[in-house]
Design a protein that fits this description.
This protein is mainly beta. It is 7% helix and 39% strand.
Length: 250
């Protein structure tokens, strides 16, 4: 598997998003909760990454490119980035040997992008599902899904917060982090984390490789359903939120 860097610089990204002539028609479902990734997905805790601006491989061979101004971070740095908060199963399966991470501030390496810096994760294969631990969700950050150079959809922090039934205000405590699950009817192979104001912090990637039926690759046959979880300790079973979005051809 060759390294395929699709890093878009801040200025280039803004132009590219505006000029892409083909945007796949997709129905994207966004769900979120305090709990962790669905069962049956491939889990990557990003702990194999080091601080470099060159493309590198994660433990599951995701090609990760961290632009200048973005970090493979550990802990928190005041005014720059804050560790996502683990609770209610957010770290289940993401510890060493598929163990569970302890609740509390994320003590393991995670990715953080400052304003104007992007982080690109190239999976090198087609997906219909990706999940991530999205820390201190705010309305300035977004996650773009690409299939090659084609923008499939963009998930904003406001949408992630709405799915988690919280506010996109950058809350760094337990209430501001959620595990965000994204399912798309159109395949994608790359995600780009874009920071527009405060840092975009995330960890614990989950994904499923697309499985094609005969002459039909529009739906994955093994994308897991989001698991049932309690929300903020209130004993409310089920998903925290559900958003449906349709992206039309531009």
């Amino acid at each position: 598997m060759g390294i395929r860097s699709k890093l878009l610089g801040a200025g280039v990204a803004a132009v590219a998003f505006g000029l892409l002539s083909t945007s796949a028609m997709a129905t994207t479902t966004v769900t979120a909760s305090v709990g962790g990734a669905p069962t049956g997905a491939i889990l990557d805790n990003l702990d194999a990454l080091t601080q470099t601006n060159s493309p590198q491989f994660s433990s599951t061979l995701i090609t990760v490119t961290v632009a200048p101004g973005a970090y493979v971070a550990t802990g928190s740095l005041g005014g720059v980035y804050a560790a996502p908060y683990l609770s209610g199963g957010n770290g289940n399966g993401f510890g060493p040997g598929s163990s569970n991470q302890a609740n509390g501030a994320d003590a393991t390496p995670y990715l953080a992008a400052e304003p104007g810096a992007n982080i690109t994760l190239d999976f090198g294969q087609e997906l219909h599902y990706v999940g991530l631990l999205w820390g201190s969700i705010d309305g300035y950050n977004s996650l773009a899904l690409y299939d090659g150079s084609t923008l499939v959809d963009t998930i904003t922090g406001a949408e992630a917060a709405a799915a988690a039934l919280t506010l996109p205000n950058g809350d760094q405590s337990v209430g501001g982090t959620a595990y965000v699950n994204i399912n798309s009817t159109v395949q994608f192979d790359t995600i780009v984390a874009i920071s527009g104001s405060p840092a975009f912090e995330f960890d614990n990637i989950a994904y499923n490789v697309q499985q094609c039926d005969t002459n039909d690759c529009t739906q994955s046959t093994n994308v897991p359903e989001p698991i049932t979880l309690s929300l903020f300790g209130a004993g409310i079973a089920g998903l925290a939120g559900l958003r449906f979005r349709r992206k039309k051809s531009s």
